Amino acid sequence: MTDPFGSAKGTAAPPATAGPPVRGPWPPALVDREPLLARARDHLTAGGSVVLTGPAGIGKSTLLGTLAAEFTDHRVLRCSLSETERHLPFLGLIDLLAETGDDLLESLPKHQRAMLESALLRGDDPVGERDVLGLRVAVLAAFRNLCAAGPVLLVVDDAQWLDAPSAELLAFIARRAGSLPLRALAGLRTGPGDPQDPPGLCPPPVVTLPVPPMTVAEVGGLLGGLGLPRAVLAKVHRASDGNPFFALELGRALADHGEPLDPAAPLPVPDGLRTLMLGRLFALSSGARHTLLIACAAARPTLALLRGAGRPEAAADIAEARHAGIVAPGDVVRFTHPLLSAVLYAESPERDRLAAHAALADAVTDPVERARHLAAVAPGRDAQVAETLSEAATAARRRGARAAAARLGLLAAERTTKPEAEPELRLTAAEDALAAGEFAMARGIAEDVLAEASLPAERVRAWIVLLDSCGQALAELDDVFPRALADARDDPALLAPLHYRLAWRAWLVKGSARRAREEAARAARLAAEAGDRNTELLALTSQALAEFHVGSPEAERTMARALAGPQDPAIRLGHNGPVYLRYRHHLLHDRLEEARGELRSLTYAVRQRGLVESLFMCLYGSAQVEMARGRCDRALDLAYQCLRLAEDSELSQGPAWCAVAFTEAAGGSLDRGLAAAERGVGHSEDDGDLLFLPTTLHALGHIRLLRGDAAGAVGALRRVRRLETAQGLAEPALRRWHADLAEALTATGAIAEAEGLIEETRRDAVRLGRRSVLATLDRAAAVVTAARGDVEVALHCMERAVASLAALPYPIEEGRARLELGRLALRAGNAAAAREALHGARRVLLRAKAAPWLAAVTSELDRLDLGAPPAAGDGDPLRALSGMERRVATLVAEGATNREIAARLFVSIKTVEAALTRSYRKLGVRSRVGLTRIIAVPRPEDRSA
C-alpha cells in the first residue's frame, strides 16, 4: 500500500498456482524499442548512417525493417546476407541493385555500363582484376544517377557476411558520397568469433547503436499470451540474456510443457537450442565439463572456489572453455551466454549435479549459499537443514536480499520437522516476498496458510499478507476485511493492523479522507493499547497524511507524535513511515533542498534493506523534487528508473507513468508525456485507485494545456476538482492543479468559473501559508484579468507573480511566469519589455533544460522578431500554415538548416522535415528557394525603416 502522495503495488494478479501455460502458438507482443528507433531515425533524417550491432537474435533485422519502412520518400536498396554466401563475389551489390532495372544501366556511358553489367552478371564477361578501378567509377556513377532522382537508403542486414568485393565498392562510394542524398542502415552481428565491422561501409557521419537486451517486462510482453508467473519470466529473461529469439524459443518450450513450471526447476530448453549449446559444450574435454558443472551450481564461481570444491585442475579447464568461447575472461567464471550454463546443468546426470552441490556445500563459507547447496543435496524433512535454511534466510534479510530470504524461508518451512513452526516460517517468507516485490509468491504462501491454520494470529497475519499484496487494487478484496475482522475478534493487537489497512481502503476505494483519518486514529489507539509501537507509528503517519489533505491544523501535532519516541528502522525508513512523511512536509513548505536530503538518505537505506516498494516511492519522490528544482534531465532519469522498477516487479505502473508524464512535460517531449499520462490514467482506473487517479489526471490535463488543447485540459482537470471535493480535500499544495485549470478555463471562455476557483484556492493557501501556491495563482489571475481586457492590471499582477516565484526554488514556474509576462507585454505593444521578459524566461529555462517550455519561448521570440503576423486575408503569405509550420518556414527563409531549426525549436529533425513537407503542399512550392521567395522576410533594417 502507499501514501496519498504516491503509489505502490499493482493490480492483484492471478496466484502463482494459476493453470497451465497456453499450448501451441500465441501472438507475441511487439517489444517497445522506441528510444533506440528514435535515435536511429533522427540520425538518418539528419543525413547520417546508422549501424545496429548486437548478437544473433537480438532483433537487428526487425529494427532495420521498421526503420526502412518509415523512409517512404527514399529509394530503399536492400541486401540480406548469409555466412554460406560470403565468398560469392559481388553478391551484395547484386542484391542491392536487383530492383533498379535496366534504366539505371542505360544511364551510364557504354564502357561503364559494360563493366557494371558484368559485375551484376547481366553481361557476358566477368570483371577482371585489371578492371577494378573502372568498376569502382561505374558503380559510383550509377549511385550518383540514382541519387539525382531522389534520396537513397541502403539497407545491409548481417553486414559481417558481406562479400569482400561488394564491401570494397560500398566503402569506395561512402568515401566519395559527399553531398549526395545517400545514407546507409546496416546490421552487424557482434559476439565471440564474429567478424569485425567492415571498415568504411557506410557514408559518414556514422553512428553505431548497440541493440540492448530486453528487460524482464519486455520479455513478459513478448510472451504475454503464456500467462507465466513473474518468477518463471525472470528465469526466461536470465536464460535468454534478454535475447528475443532465445526468449521466444524458451517460450515455445514452456507452451509445449503442458503444466505449471516450478520456479525452482530448470527451464525446458527446446531441442534446437539444446542441440546448438550441447554441440559447443561437448567439444570440451570431460574434465572441463565437470568443472563447468560446478561453476553452474555456484553463485559466484572463482578459480579458488572451484579448486576448493575438488577441481585442482580448474585453471586449465577454464582456460580451455575460454578458448572455445564458452566462458568470458575475468576473475569470476561467467558463461558467454546463460543458456550454455542452463543446458549443461539440465543435461548433466542427477548424481553429478548432487555431487557438485555437495562439494560446494563443503567449500563455500557464505551461510546463505551453503544453505542453498545443503537443501539441494538433502531433500526431505531434516531438522538441522531446516535450521540452517532459517538462519540463512535471516542473514539474507539483513543483507537486503529479501527475495533470497523468502525462498530460503520457504525451503526451511518445507524441511522442518516441527509442524507447529511451519506457519511462522511460511508467513515470514511471505513477508519477505512482499518486501522484495514478489507479490504473487506472497499471495500463494498466504493462501496455503489460510487453508490450514486455525490460530487467529496466524490467520490474521495471512489475511494481511493478502491485503498488502494487492496494492492499489483493494476494491478486489472487499470480502477479505469482514473475514479478517472476524478472525481478530476483540484482540487489539490483531485489530490494530487491520484498521490501519481499512484507512487505506477508505482512501483508495471510497475516496474519503475523513473516513481514512477515523480508521487511522482508531488503529493508533488500538496499537497503543496492545503495545504495538510499529503499527502505532504507521497509523499515526496515515492519520497525519489525511489531516494534511483536509487542511486540518491537527496535522502538525500528529506528525510530531509519529516522529517522537522509539523508531524501528524498518518502519521509520519505509515509504509509509514518518520519515517519508517529513519529506512530503518539506515540500508543502517549499523546502526543496531539505526534501531532497531526506529522500537521498531514505533511498540509500531502502536499497540496503531490499525494500522494493519503498525504493519505488523514493524514486518517484526524487523525480518530483528534481523536476521542481529545475533539474529536468535528472528528473527524467529518475522517472524512467521508477518505471523500469515497476515493470520489473509487480508494482502498479500507474504512478510510474505519471512520473514519466510530468517529467517529459517539463524537460522532454510533450508527445511522449501525453502518451505516458494516458497510460497512467488507464492503470489507475483499472486499479480503482481513487487516491492516485487525481494526480494522474492532473498530469493529463497539464500536458493537454501545454499542447494548446484547452478544452481537453478542462475536461481532465475538472475531474480532478470533483474527485478532491468528494474526498474532502483542502490542501492546495499537494497536487497543484488549480492554476492550470484556471488558465484552461480562461482559454475556453469560462472566465467566471476561473475567477471563482482562484478565489476559493487563494483562501486555503492564505490560511495554510502556501507561498508558492499563491504565486502560481497570481500568474493565473493575471491571465484571467487579461482575458477580461485589462492588460495593464494583468501586467502588474504578472510582475508580482514573477517576483514571488524568483524568490522561491521553482525555476520552471518562474520561467513560465516570465513567458506569460512577455506575452502580455507583446499584447500591450511594448516590444522591448516583451523581449526582456522572454530572454529572462529563456535564461531560467535553459538552466533547467526545460525543452518544451524553451520551445514555447522560442516561438514567442520568433514572433516578436518578425512582428505580429497580419490577420488572415490581409496578404499574410503564411496564413494557411499552423504555428509549427509557420515557425519552421520563417527560419528556412532566414537561411537556417534543418538541424539548426530543430535545435532552435527543440524538436527532432524529422519533425522539421514533416513541417516543411506540409508547408510546401499548402503553399504550392517545391523547394526551400520557392518557400523563401513567397515569404520574402524583410531584413531588420528594412523593418526599422
From TrEMBL:
Keywords: ATP-binding, Nucleotide-binding
Biased composition (Low complexity): 10-21
UniProt-listed PROSITE patterns: HTH_LUXR_1, HTH_LUXR_2
Boundaries of every HTH luxR-type domain copy: 874-939
SMART domains found in the cross-reference section: AAA, HTH_LUXR
Segments of this protein annotated with the region Disordered: 1-28
Listed name of the protein: LuxR family transcriptional regulator
